[in-house]
Specification:
This protein is of the alpha/beta class. It contains ten helices and 17 strands. The strands form three sheets. Strands 8-7-6-10-9-17 form a six-stranded mixed sheet, sandwiched between helices. Strands 13-12-11-14-15-16 form a six-stranded parallel sheet, with helices on both faces.
């Protein structure tokens, strides 16, 4: 649901009634993963998607029904061998969808509204919802918002807003587990007992984490960087451009970048925040910039490090890095020449080849053509599953 938070937050602020359908479980190949959502308001307006088109019509009707009767419902959609064109997933997978009404008078609306506000404001927050268990708890929600007021009854544990309506220990346990998933920036499923431990009927929850968007840092304020900034923004990255030359590192040249920095690349990189989701693209292909920059980059926990240049430039760069003391294990992390072999020529085509490699690296793709490759179409990691806690 948090993937469409900006639009739903606007709906909530306008006082609209709406219902949200969220993918809560996936088996086999499916276009969208847990957390993907579609919402419908009273006037029939639609935002989001749960299947890329396969079952949207049926889910729309479920949302309309939930708005009328006020009841949450969980529905399963899968491929039908008898009729591939009936309601189902023709890609062969199975998805479970939870539909929850969010109406002005519904007791859970404040929790949903707070979750949407946090996500739309890019504040770290985790929304936990019951997706399977006692019928009376289905769709109940609890929010862990690191900047929110929390619940003064949380007993000194993780502050939270809302509640699941079950045993008091259930809320505390789920809040703690949701906080752990939020810390990892993960969306995943959680199974606990109805009493917050091994005791009682098992309850399954989907925990959606809203975190800051991942960073893409582009070094080298060149024309290829302009195209890469646009591609990075399209993929949801917060993009920074850095170049040591102030005349080139300007917001006027990179209006779509979130940040433009005029500084020596290695000095800026050493001082800025980098994590496992960060993408570093080195387009300078100049040894006086590249070598100190990559020497720093290859020792940081970035998820992707790529450098532009010819194969001759790459070999020279590798030797210079070895002379600087960079180990073979560290060098193995470098993607150079940067990008996939698409036959790219223009800046836009080159940017496409770079982000294609970034996506393949992130999702575990091979970069091979899907036609006849015999590889899975969807490489999305399975959601994190936290076992029943004691």
């Amino acid at each position: 649901m948090l993937d469409i938070a900006a639009e739903l937050h606007r709906w909530a602020e306008e006082g609209r009634d709406f219902a949200v359908a969220t993918v809560v479980a996936v088996t086999g190949s499916a276009p969208r993963q847990p957390g993907a959502a579609l919402a419908v308001d009273r006037d029939g307006a639609v935002v989001g998607s749960v299947s890329g088109g396969c079952v949207e019509g049926a889910v729309y009707e479920l949302c309309a029904q939930a708005l009328d009767d006020g009841l949450p419902v969980r529905e399963r959609f899968g491929y039908s061998d008898e009729d591939a064109f009936a309601v189902g997933l023709t890609c062969g997978g199975v998805i479970d969808v939870l539909v929850v009404p969010v109406r002005a008078a519904d007791p859970g609306r404040p929790v949903y509204a707070a979750a949407l506000a946090a996500a739309a404001g890019r504040r770290p927050a985790a929304l936990a919802r019951v997706t399977d268990g006692p019928a009376e708890l289905l769709g109940r929600a609890l929010l862990v918002d690191t900047d929110g007021p929390g619940d003064p009854q949380a007993g000194g544990g993780v502050p939270y807003t809302g509640g699941l309506g079950g045993h008091p220990a259930l809320d505390r346990t789920v809040a703690a587990e949701a906080y752990a998933l939020l810390g990892a920036g993960r969306t995943g499923t959680l199974t606990v007992g109805a009493e917050g431990s091994h005791c009682g009927q098992p309850i399954t929850l989907l925990v959606e984490s809203s975190v800051e968007p991942p960073r893409m840092i582009v070094f080298g304020a060149i024309d290829f960087a302009q195209a890469l900034v646009r591609a990075g923004r399209f993929l949801g990255y917060r993009v920074t451009v850095c170049d040591a030359r102030p005349v080139f590192a300007t917001s006027a040249r990179f209006p779509e970048a979130d940040e433009v920095v005029a500084d020596w690349p290695h000095r800026y990189l050493a001082a800025t925040e980098v994590d496992a989701r960060t993408v570093l693209c080195v387009l300078t292909h100049d040894p006086k910039f590249d070598v100190p920059l990559l020497e720093t980059a290859l020792r940081l926990p970035a998820g992707y490090i790529g450098a532009m240049g010819s194969r001759r430039t790459h070999l020279d760069r590798m030797e210079r890095l070895r002379e600087a003391g960079v180990t073979e294990a560290e060098l193995a992390r470098l993607r150079s020449p940067i990008g996939l072999d698409l036959g790219a020529r223009t800046p836009e085509e080159t940017a496409l080849s770079i982000v294609a490699e970034i996506v393949a690296e992130r999702r575990g793709g091979s970069g091979a053509p899907l036609n006849g490759a015999g590889v899975p179409i969807h490489h999305e990691d399975a959601p994190t599953t936290v076992p029943t806690v004691g």
